[in-house]
């Protein structure tokens, strides 16, 4: 279809692009046989890029598990490239729980509604809208911008980002820095002051299975070697112990920024009261002050009067950057004797510094669009595809800029019911990304 001068500007088409993308159901169940939409979404993105003359490649790790990569050539091709990545998959959503159908992409009350609206088809749509406008109007970024729209983030990225990094690293040739999700959003302190949380670190992931063994036997006898009892003691110790506070560099700066913004002092050992001012995001932020381990699954026995020989539990462990060995020591002492521990999923923590030209341009772009903006670094308690791209030596940032209404409970929208994003926030994000990507 020929483009005309009346083609919509990025800000004017971003909401529609997001709606269209939400309508492509890319639910990631963790099982390839039932994860259908990624290929269609990747083809849809390819079509949107092709309309404006941007070539892209679709790559499949397994049948249907499609990711798309494109390179927008920069003015100075000798400079290192910047990766902008976003995942196309989403977590499941049950329509019965929602006010609108989660895959309707409906625009209502100034919001685009649907699964993926904040995690993270919003960023996908903002980037797509922007590069489409650039292509139509002949804008070249200062250096190469590599775009990656990937599969499988919600199941750990093994069939998306991790696969691309392992199998197709040449696609990211020259990329030294990357931006993506969970960062760049605002928390309103007061009318003229908003903190923008830029993610510079992610905790590491250590999901483990604990297995206790004991002597099987009859449930009616005296029995002093019960696997269930032993397991439960270990699980209770893990679940009820709060590990010590560790202030990593990003969180030290984050705490200082919160103290300054609110004129308060925060005791890092019990930050809950102070953090309550930040709203629901405090649950995520609070978890970045220490290693954590939460028991999540239990399995033992098959009959009321049979003591089983083994019992097992699953624990979701997360450790801060530089804390992996300490975390293992902490766990060993909590698990205790007679219980084996094995990793089910283990992945590194990542951390970079909040400085340098890239960060300066993030700050400048946010301030240019919001004169009450105060950008601050923070550590994310969860994991993203940054863990994969960091393996190629990139500095990774969570920077998907959104200026949010003061009363929006943003944190609860991630994987939540009635996930939605304000259209004004999307337009703001496009403007910030435009400034940022033209300047770096
Ligand atoms: Zn996400």
UniProtKB/TrEMBL annotation:
Cell division in keyword set: no
Signal peptide limits: none
Database matches in CDD domains: M20_yscS_like (cd05675)
Matching Pfam families: M20_dimer (PF07687), Peptidase_M20 (PF01546)
PROSITE patterns referenced in this protein's UniProt entry, alphabetically: ARGE_DAPE_CPG2_1
Keyword terms: Hydrolase, Metal-binding, Zinc
InterPro entries the UniProt entry points to: ArgE/DapE_CS, Bact_exopeptidase_dim_dom, Peptidase_M20, Peptidase_M20_dimer, Peptidase_M20A
Residue ranges annotated for the Peptidase M20 dimerisation domain, each copy included: 200-332
Superkingdom, taxonomy of origin: Bacteria
Cofactor(s) needed: Zn(2+)
Family: Belongs to the peptidase M20A family.
Protein name, per record: M20/M25/M40 family metallo-hydrolase
Lineage per the UniProt record: Bacteria, Bacillati, Actinomycetota, Actinomycetes, Geodermatophilales
